[in-house]
Prior knowledge:
The structure holds two protein chains of two kinds.
Chain A: E1 17-20, H1 24-37, E2 54-56, H2 67-86, H3 92-97, E3 99-109, E4 115-118, E5 125-132, E6 146-148, E7 174-176, E8 182-187, E9 192-194, E10 203-213
Antiparallel strand pairs in A: 1-8, 2-3, 3-10, 4-9, 5-8, 5-10, 6-7, 6-9
Helix pairs in contact in A: 1-2
Chain B: E1 17-20, H1 25-37, E2 56-58, H2 69-89, H3 94-98, E3 102-111, E4 115-120, E5 127-134, E6 148-150, E7 177-179, E8 185-190, E9 195-200, E10 206-215
Antiparallel strand pairs in B: 1-8, 2-3, 3-10, 4-9, 5-8, 5-10, 6-7, 6-9
Helix pairs in contact in B: 1-2
Amino acid sequence: xxxxxxxxxxxxxxxxxxxxxxxxxxxxxxxxxxxxxxxxxxxxxxxxxxxxxxxxxxxxxxxxxxxxxxxxxxxxxxxxxxxxxxxxxxxxxxxxxxxxxxxxxxxxxxxxxxxxxxxxxxxxxxxxxxxxxxxxxxxxxxxxxxxxxxxxxxxxxxxxxxxxxxxxxxxxxxxxxxxxxxxxxxxxxxxxxxxxxxxxxxxxxxxxxxxxxxxxxxxxxxx
Amino acid sequence: xxxxxxxxxxxxxxxxxxxxxxxxxxxxxxxxxxxxxxxxxxxxxxxxxxxxxxxxxxxxxxxxxxxxxxxxxxxxxxxxxxxxxxxxxxxxxxxxxxxxxxxxxxxxxxxxxxxxxxxxxxxxxxxxxxxxxxxxxxxxxxxxxxxxxxxxxxxxxxxxxxxxxxxxxxxxxxxxxxxxxxxxxxxxxxxxxxxxxxxxxxxxxxxxxxxxxxxx
Lengths: 223, 216
């Protein structure tokens, strides 16, 4: 008896997009220098967790006049738009008519630092752009990864077939290693974190909360 | 506004049991000495389910089979606490419960500077519990060090927030729950609940015992 070939499709899938920014090579050194200079109390997010190992700026990068920041923000928002468009039935003209609302900040994660788990309300997309990343740790493969927490209410019953299930069906968290010049885009409701950095050097990222507004009349909750 | 008599009830609630062993100082010092002495490859979990870290030692899951009196004393307290939680949270009678076979996997963790444990849950178990042997130092500039964080099991529920749901009472709050266990304190929770240990930044050790329980 022959075994019929199954047709398996992902249901209830979470979109996760990666975009390479062509401007990165020129932008990143300027961004890194500017962020290093402004990693001070004056620029720190007053609500950020204290501690010297991780610095999070205020979420006002969209207001910064410096050209590298403006250019990076434009590229990040364009990347978010392209990810949203790639999985959307709205026509290009309809998408182009939407107004983008965003907030962005930079984060510097130093050795033994991390970004605790978080998700963002009243936001549709989260973008994480990598400015600089330290060399890979030879012993800690999860050093500094962007870890998205499992969001499916998975069954508590498991049998032996579960241990080998492949992505995107594998139960559990998903990790993405930040690469300078790359932008990760995913739903902002997904709890995510930057795992503890176990390498020399610093991980520098820009994070943006993004949502799209259909018209000036459409109501959006404050954020 | 018309005043209506509303009865408010928690539904889909997560049961959380809490108990304290008192006094616990002698027992905890004996456990600490025993665990530190057995922080060796012989007793290390050979098949960790998560990424091993040199900053956190995880023992084999057979701790409650150790014959040492301090371990057996802890076993009684921890499993009694689980049993009491199950009885309070369920419709099982004490007689029905007594007829069940009570299984457990139990292990200890010794965490040092910058050790943590990633968010996880425990399939194939119904109840989990964590007992604190040693809190460890909490540096003034790292108030979130070494917390046990229980994640809200309603993914997406907090994706829309406005003033009407952003300040709910604790039982209904749309956020994770951070717990700093005290020495001698145990908490018991359903094994489906994702939880993590935040990075520990003390200069000493944080020591806990965890158990997963199932019944047949």
